[in-house]
Amino acid sequence: MIVCFDIGGSAIKGAVATSLEDIRPLTRRPTPLHDFDAFVATLEAAFEEAGVRPERIALSIAGVVDPDTQAITVANIPCLHQRPLARDLGDRLRMPVLIANDADCFALAEAGLGAGRGHRIVFGVILGTGVGGGLVANGRLINGDGGFAGEWGHGPAVAATAGSPPVAIPAFPCGCGQSGCVDTIGAARGMERLHQLLHGEALPSHEITARWQAGDAGAARTIEVLVDLVSSPLALAINITGATIVPVGGGLSGVAPLIAAIDQAVRARILRKFDRPLVVPGECRIEPGLIGAALLALTGDDR
Length: 303
Hints:
alpha/beta
């Protein structure tokens, strides 16, 4: 029996798992942001609720781990930031601890139980608050040790112009320290930034997509530019990895016409031609982070 966790900046979601067919959710608990002792106690409270001490635990978390030092970068939870988290938790809880990036866990879940079933190479994409991704081959993460593979959202890859007629796109600064990352113009915050740039109007992403689907010309222009900017780096990632399916998670994955537009643009820009959808909404609609973490813990191997 294992316990898996999906660690977010506001809440910790947990589950008890004995197999992928038997995953039982636990009570959702607030995430202690500044107190590591309180963070450990929150995990231990989940063990008490489960009624038995697990053999090991696995965490899905929005961060990356330095393969050399094992220190995790997770800026939204200060008590974990730059800490060798797997080691420190293992020492405190006296059990093996596996940690994976949340996008990696999404990709694992989709490869095992979602849209990626039957595909050898699955590139899972997150279009939520920001842009992320994870790469799975033959059912295993390409580099579970770190969470860097598949992170197509970072790196100076955004085109200087986009749309028809073309509009100049600034190299917006990114939270990773670089400028011009896909993360700055893709997904929800990027959509809002582009709409402000194009129209001088501050709107939340859900309002922009709603207006677009209702036929609003300004919102349509924003979506056109976003699709143009996002599709080229995603097509390059698919060419490099050879992925044959790209499940999408995050908030924008629920906007089916947007995913279809990205799919159409991506398939026009890759070397291999598909006569079926390639970029598709993820199918693990309930807690893919927990499912991916459960896969890590049940196999006992994060690579």
